[in-house]
Automatic annotation (TrEMBL):
UniProt xrefs under InterPro entries: Peptidoglycan-bd-like, PGBD-like_sf, PGBDSf
Alphabetized UniProt keyword annotations: Signal
UniProt domain Peptidoglycan binding-like: residue ranges: 68-104
Name of the protein described by the UniProt record: Peptidoglycan binding-like domain-containing protein
Signal peptide positions on this chain: 1-24
Alphabetical list of Pfam families matching this protein: PG_binding_1
Length: 129
């Protein structure tokens, strides 16, 4: 029984790697590693949330405040997420799930359509696609 679980795990890992390789080669957007992001989280996904918040400030300076891009999801980042969720008519919970992640990715993409400024953000946000 243990061997079949190991084989199944290895097969799943290989399938994930193959999907990531195909996506990277085609340039399509796909979130393969990102989970939902919320207050207390750290890392590159959080940095991408903060980048999107700062870009959103350019469009809605009275509604979205800038935040420091420090990879730590604190209260100011949560406030920025809520502001963007409010603008887009999403649930205002301050959590970046797939729907909010899609909106954040669209914001980043509008300022960086080729993914040259923030290439990791195209992989590190949770999205529906």
């Amino acid at each position: 029984m243990r061997l079949s679980k190991r084989i199944a795990g290895a097969a799943a890992t290989l399938a994930s790697a193959a999907a990531l390789t195909v996506t990277a080669q085609t340039g399509a957007h796909a979130s393969t590693t990102a989970d939902w992001l919320s207050k207390g989280d750290t890392g590159s996904g959080v940095s991408c949330v903060q980048v999107a918040i700062n870009y959103a400030h350019n469009w809605w300076p009275g509604s979205v405040a800038t935040v420091r891009t420090d990879a730590m999801f604190g209260q100011l980042t949560a406030n920025g997420v809520v502001a963007i969720q409010r603008i887009y008519g999403l649930s205002q919970d301050g959590i970046v799930g797939p729907r909010t992640g899609d909106r954040l990715w669209q914001i980043i993409h509008s300022f960086d359509p080729k993914g040259e400024l923030h290439p990791d953000c195209y992989w590190d946000l949770p999205t529906l696609s």
